[in-house]
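Cross-posting from the modeling subforum.

Setting up a comparison between two proteins and wanted a second pair of eyes on the formatting. Protein 1 (sequence, then structure tokens):
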Amino acid sequence: MENTDQNKLARRRLLTTMSVAAVAGLAAGAGPAPAQAQSQTPGFQPARHDKDAWLNELPGSHRVFIDSSTMAGGPAGLWYANNMISAHEEEYDGEASDFAMVVCFRHMSTPYGFDDGIWAKYGAIFNRSADPAPTRNPLSTPSASSGQNSIASSVARGVNFAICGRATRRFAMAIASATGGNADDVFAELTAGGVPNSHFVPAGVLTATRAQEYRYSFLYAE
């Protein structure tokens, strides 16, 4: 009987020792990964390009990029920008200068980025369905579609504009075809006639993605 009791006691000690060792092994495996393994999975860092640097240079504690690509979206984008600024001023006791605010005119909304002088010459081409043909940038005057905001009043609040260079090139080609002019000359004229606070960018769709890499909130106006 004594030998049997001693054998049971020995087995219990063996099982206890094995359990402690197993727990210790699990605890060691749950610890931080070795420094060498961690260094093999660095965080993503987007590449930077000089053509996008202006996005990072705009002052403000809030960054917003409003994209538009249609004739209706341009005025809506202006409305959205000013609505956000007004809500921030009224409800957060903030100021317009707290925003790095960019409204993008691309695709069919691109002509909103051209001043009244350009529209006086080419308004009939920008909006062929209008009768009579527009002779001023529609956003030069407050209207219901823009929430009674204009380019000038938006600029006064610090709003910036990104204008699609590729779409501008297409409009230049259409103007040259309609007038018998030179597309390169017309393109130079259009880019010299941008609205205040405007930045002609390589492509509006590309800048919309680059802005998000600079931590701009994104909103689409239609």
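Protein 2 (same layout):
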Amino acid sequence: MNGFSFIFGDHRLIALPSGALWWADRRLLCISDMHLCKSNRIARRSGQMLPPYETQETLSKLAHDIALTDPQTVVCLGDSFDDLTAAESLSLEDTTSLVSLQAGRRWLWLEGNHDPGPLTLGGTHLAVHTDGGLTFRHIASATLLEISGHYHPKHAIPGIGGARACFLNDGNRLIMPAYGAYTGGLRATDAALTRLFEGQTVAILTGHRAICVPLTRSGRPAPPVRWRDSTR
């Protein structure tokens, strides 16, 4: 899997290189901020035309993670679509792909700020999901042992070729990276993120292999934590 395994609360989770989170004991796969159909929303609102392939690319990545883990439950942490109109504009091909991924699984759509209303697609629409003492929602709150998204954190360390989408974790709060192909990012050291964390915070960088890097108080990265293969 090339993931990074860690304990969160009383549970072992794995940050996958793709930006998905795998909870093996629950057979639960969690993703955040796919922003499907973003090119459609941009064209509709600004007239700017972008290559309309991000939805297919994101769903292909999700199909790979589902094939890898075979989850019983998939939790989408909000902003799954770039807006509610975009959700209605999903092509027949992409709709078919998504429906096939949902088949035989519990699928939870958590509301985000981009897609706050119920979706006409299969699955269950919720504001918050709780399981085993962990709380899943789109935007971080004051809740302990919370898994959220929204901020699209990114971080860079010397020698890896630029900033990568990353998980941020201080043992009480876990913020997920954006999973979508057309998503920007916010520096992990930005005040909007650092104010949410207490104590030692780590960034788990996505890419070919998930790499865990402690963040120092100065905002400069400390040496990487030794990588641990999640299959061991």
